[in-house]
Each structure stands twice: as C-alpha cells, then as structure tokens.
Amino acid sequence: MDRPWWRIAVDVLKANEVHLIPYVPDNVLKPLIAALHEDPFFHAFTVAREEEAVGIVAGAWMAGTKGLVLMQTSGFATLANVLASLPCAFQIPVLMMISERGTMGEFNLGQAAVWRTMRPTLEALAMEHHVVTRLDECEFIFDRTIRQAHLTQMPAAIILSPLLTGGKAVTRQVVA
Amino acid sequence: MIAAHNAKRMYRFDLMQRLVARLEHEEAVIGGIGNTNFDLWSAGHRPQNFYMLGSMGLAVPIALGVALAQPNRKVFAVEGDGSLLMQLGCLATVATLGPKNLAILVMDNGVYQITGGQQTPAARADFVAIAQGCGLSHAAWAADETDFERQVGHCLETDGPHVIAVKLDDQPPVSQTERDPPQIRDRFMRGMGAKRSKLPG
Ligand SMILES: Cc1ncc(C[n+]2csc(CCOP(=O)(O)OP(=O)(O)O)c2C)c(N)n1
Ligand SMILES: [Mg+2]
C-alpha cells in the first residue's frame, strides 16, 4: 500500500536529519503531528505563536540542529515581519510546512480571506515555496525543497494542498 | 525576594559589561532588537554573541533554539521589556520545555526607548510575576549591581531555566551594532562550533 503523505513527510524529515519540530496545530496536520510525537527521533512541541517557532528553528540551525515549523495558512499570515527580518535577512534556512486552508471548498470565510494573502506574501519575500498536490510528487518535492534550503541557507515553504491531504471536509451552511 | 519597585535603576551598558565579564565558557548571548543588542555589542564583541536586527520579540525563542540544540552550553537571552511584551507566550513555552541551560535577562526601562521613549502598556505589570505565573519558578528582580552579578553567577552554576529582571535608568546606548546580518550569522555559527570554514572569519 502507498504510504500516506504524512508518513512520507516523516521519512523525508528523518532522512534529512530534521529533528526539531515546533508547531501550532491544525486539524489536517493531526496524523503528522501524532507520528512525530510517537517517534523518539523528533522533538515536536507546541508554541504559543508561529513567530516563536520561527525564532526557535532559526536559533537551533545556527547552533547545529535542523528544524521545521508546522502551521496552517492563518499562522503563516502572522509571519511576514519575522520572516523578512530573521531568516531572509540573516540567510537562515527556516523550513515551514503549511497546511493550506481557505481554498477548495473552504467553509470559513475568514480562512478564505487569509488564504489570499499567502502567495503574495511568499512572492514579496522572494521565498522558495512549493505546493504539493499529488501523493506521487510528495517525496521528491519534500526532499528537494528541504535539501535546497539547507544547501543555500535560505528559508522555504512547503504548502500542503487539500488535493493532497483532503483538507478539512466541507460542511453545509447552518441556518439557525 | 526583592519587589520590582525596590529594584535599583541600573545602567544597561554597565550591566552588559558585568555579564560579559562573567562568561568564561563560550556561553551564547542573544541580544534582542535595538538598544539591548547595541549595548551587548558595545561591551565587546564575542563570537558567541548574536545581535537581532528586527524580528522584535524573538530573542528568547532564538535563545531557546540554541539552548535545545546545545544542551551543554549556557545560553542567555537579553530582551527589552517592550519586546518581551510582544511575545509573552514564549515564557510559557520555556517553562514547559524547561531547558536547564537557558537564562533570560529582562531589561525593563518601562519604555520603548529606541523609538523615542514612549511608555509601554505594562506600567502596572511585574515581569518576574509574569514569568513565575508562566511556570518559571527561578525568576527574580536584581536589587542592584552586586545582586545582578550574584544572580548571573547562579545562572552559570545551577540548572535553569532562570529569569533575571532588571530595572534600567534612561541612559542611551553607547554605540550601534554593525548591521550586516549574514556576517553576524556566520560569526555566530562559528562561535557555536556549528560551522567550519577556511574563509578567514
Ligand atoms: C513588530 C514591530 N513593531 C514595532 C517595531 C518598532 N520598534 C523597534 S524597537 C522598538 C522598541 C523596543 O522596546 P524595548 O524592547 O523595550 O527596548 P528599548 O528600546 O526600551 O531598549 C519598537 C517599538 C518593530 N521593529 N517591530
Ligand atoms: Mg524598553
């Protein structure tokens, strides 16, 4: 049987010695988060804000430990200032894996509105980013994005499309 | 334990010199945005110093990352009061993870000094009480310079995480850090032993 996307993520992170995983949770990321906590190779823990996680991964990299931040689209939207002034300015390969909310049948208008800010922000920061939509491309995109970030010392974002993860199921409008 | 209002108002540059003078084992020091890292720089550059040039509020998270990566090295985060206010949640994270090698210095002048000395919204807050409320039980105000040095020694000699909060006077910083982020990062990585290079550093 094919490995699910989150199992591939675990394997690729391990192969690239990405060890430290601070995150603010998201429903779609649940199986990945559970697998990371289960595996003693990883140090996965929650933080209060995504900005904090960017600082932690940046500090850890400079001291010799690789990390990656897990978040959802709305978490990314809180980050423009710290991404510009820390990993972009200092050339530190802060890696981000972002569960994409707000598109492909989103039921929450707030999430949909935030979604529209993500690509323009990534582009304005000139930050490497790739959207993963297919299981058969998962391993290649994860692995190459992580490697390139480390080799070039530049931050990068991997966006997990609902086409890959299934997203959060569309619910019907509740009319009270 | 001393109460916040009894703590002597001290000179940031003097405290930075006293801190740096106590560091004999290549301890890492992460200086927060602005005047905080300016006075760390002015106290004499060390390869183990990192100077933040933006990302207001991230001195403690960066220091936490360093501390987790190198549990045998002591790490100091030096952060301004306004900056810490922007990222108070990080104190809870530090308390939960409990890195034994991390110490946090809170530089409380009550204002955003670098932007013109405007009062912070924390006029009635007590940073030691906040840290303790987050679960950081080793948190205390430094009464004066002697007490500050004693507490720094305690951070170096015992397991943390520790928090030392100091009240500052209103003297300006002595000079400004050279603003060259990739150079700062490169020097710091060499200082941490995380990068080797044949390029002269
Ligand atoms: C997110 C963000 N908001 C505002 C600023 C502008 N700013 C830079 S330093 C600073 C004040 C820092 O205050 P504090 O940490 O208390 O240090 P002090 O200047 O008092 O030494 C402010 C408001 C900024 N750089 N980033
Ligand atoms: Mg201040």
Please, what is the average pLDDT of chain A?
95
CATH third-tier fold name of chain A: Rossmann fold
Q: Please give the share of residues in helix of chain A.
A: 40-55%
What integer value in Å does the Rg of chain B equal?
16 Å
Sequence of secondary-structure elements of chain B: EHEHEHEHHEEEHEHEH
Largest sheet of chain A: 6 strands, parallel
**Count of DSSP helices of chain B?**
8
Strand content of the residues of chain A, in percent?
Answer: 15-25%
CATH class of chain B: Alpha Beta
Number of strands of chain B: 9
| Global outline of chain A | globular
Between the first and last Cα atoms of chain B, what is the distance in angstroms? Answer: 44 Å
- The CATH homologous superfamily of chain A is named Thiamin diphosphate (ThDP)-binding fold, Pyr/PP domains
Structural class of chain B: alpha/beta
For the biggest sheet of chain B, the summary is: 7 strands, parallel
Keywords (chain A): Decarboxylase, Lyase
InterPro entries (chain A): THDP-binding, TPP_dependent_decarboxylase
Protein name (chain A): Decarboxylase
Transmembrane segments (chain B): 50-69
Descriptive report:
Chain A has 176 residues and is of the alpha/beta class. Chain A is 49% helix and 18% strand. Chain A has 8 helices and 6 strands. In chain A, helix 1 packs across helix 2 (30-38), helix 1 runs parallel beside helix 7 (135-152) and helix 3 (50-62) packs parallel to helix 5. Chain B has 201 residues and is α/β, with parallel strands linked by helices. Chain B has a single domain, classed as Rossmann fold. In chain B, strand 6 (111-112) and strand 7 form a beta hairpin. The interface between A and B is medium-sized, with 32 and 38 residues. Residues 80-82, 109, 111-113 of chain B line the site of magnesium ion (MG).
Descriptive labels:
A: 176 residues, alpha/beta, Rossmann fold, six-stranded parallel β-sheet, 6 strands, B: 201 residues, seven-stranded parallel β-sheet, 9 strands, 18% strand
